[in-house]
Amino acid sequence: LSLQEVLSANDPDNNFFTTAIRPHGIFGPRDPQLVPILVQAARSGKMKFIIGDGKNLVDFTYVENVVHGHILAAEKLHKGSPLCGK
Q1: Domain locations in the chain?
Q2: What letters, b where the CB count within 10 A reaches 16 and e where it falls short, cover 18-52?
Q3: In the chain, helix, strand, coil percent, each to 5?
Q4: Phi and psi dihedrals of 47, rounded to 5?
Q5: Cα 49 vs. chain centroid, distance in angstroms?
């Protein structure tokens, strides 16, 4: 489903609450992509690297923080919550 479909499905009158959480660059233990790249860069002394043209903004989020964010959002989803549908 698209983001807008999920958010528009928010229906507090029927106890169906939605919100959007869109983390980027999730990494953590047993990560098959980001962690090995960072480890290799550190071992070869090339910790500085540029993604794209260097002007883009990229954010990395540790997997446990993503989980924590989902739990906090779920705890706040209730009738009248400003998070609902956003």
Answers
A1: 3-76
A2: bbeeeeeeeeeeeeeeeeeeeeeeeeeeeeeeeee
A3: 40, 5, 55
A4: -70, -25
A5: 22
Cα 71 to Cα 63: distance, rounded to the nearest angstrom: 13
Residues 14-68 pLDDT 10s: 999 999 998 988 888 888 888 788 788 888 887 666 667 878 777 788 999 999 9
List, in sequence order, every residue forming a beta bridge with 26; answer none if it has no partner.
61
On whether the pTM is more than 0.90, the answer is: no
Q: Is 23 left (phi over 0), alpha (psi -120 to 50) or beta?
A: beta
Within 13 Å of residue 70, how many CA atoms lie on the same side as its CB? 9
Name the DSSP letter for residue 16: B
